[in-house]
Amino acid sequence: MDISQTIAPKSNQLNFDDFLSGESKTIKITEVSGTSEKEQPIAISYEGDNGKPYRPSKGMRRVLVYVWGKDSKDYIGRSLTLYGDPEVKFGGQAVGGIRISHMIMFSFGRSCFSFRQ
User: Which DSSP string corresponds to 18-29?
Assistant: First the structure.
């Protein structure tokens, strides 16, 4: 019996625990919407998200705006590669978080920006 599903984190969003295997995940964006949460005011839905959108941190939102611009409608159809970074801090404690390693822009040909070393 595979018991791996019994240890899945209870969450309504993609989170660091989803990356504990060390694998990155490339997502294709289908929708960007607002949330009522102050710390994570946007939700990025993607193909196969199973109701668990990516909710980027302020730092990752800054990256999105810097590379793709401020209009989230332009993000639809583009892809991000995400990875879990155990060094992400919250309240001074390393708690882990999700970072963007690559951003792929299909609308301008195939351009790829890489942020991860």
Answer: GGTTS--EEEEE
